[in-house]
Amino acid sequence: MPQLNWCAFLRMPMLAAFASILLGCSDYQQARSAYAAGDYTKAYQLFQGLAESGDTKAQYDLSLMYIQGIGTKQNIEQGLVWLNRAAEKGNIEAMLELGVLYQKIDALENAPQLALYWFEKAAMAGSAVGQYNLAHIYMDGGQIAVDLPKAYIWMSLSDATGNPVAGAELAKLKASLSPQELISAKEKLAALKKTLP
What we know:
By secondary structure, the protein is an all-alpha fold. Helix content is 76%, strand content 0%. The protein contains ten helices and no strands. The longest helix has 31 residues. The protein is elongated and about 60 Å long.
C-alpha cells in the first residue's frame, strides 16, 4: 500500500493561498503604478475592481480618486461610500481621513461626534496620528467639551507610539493637570494600554 506524503498534501493548499495573495498584491501594485505614472483612468478601473472585491487599500485609494475627481468625475458622495467601507473594515488611513473630513464639515450637525468617533477608532487600532488627533479634540474643545485628562491619556499614547511631536505637547498637558487629575489619568491610561494592540 503506497504511503501518503502528508507534507506534499498539505503544501498544495498553502501554495494556492500564497499564490492568490501574490496575485492580489500584484493587481494592487499595478493600480498604484498606473496612478504614479499618471494613467489615472487605468488606475481608477483597477482600483474599482479591487475595491468591489473587498480590498480595503483599493477602497481607500478609490475613495480619494472620487473625492478629488482624479481618473473619474468628482463624486464626493461616492467617495465617502468607499471611504466608509474601507474604514469599517479596519483601514486606519480611511478612519483618519474620515476624521479629518468630518472636522472640516460645518454644515453637518453631528460632524464633531463623527470626527471623534473615527479618530477614536484609529487611536484604538494603535494609530499614533489617531491618538494625537483625538488628544487635540479633547484639548481644543469646540463642540466637544474640553477634557484635559482625556487629552493627556491620548497624547501619552501618541508619544509612546512614536509620534515625535507629542512629547512637547504632553509636557504642557501634564503641567496643566492637578495632581489628582494626573493620578486619575495615569490609572486610566494604564487600563487603556491593556486593551490596545
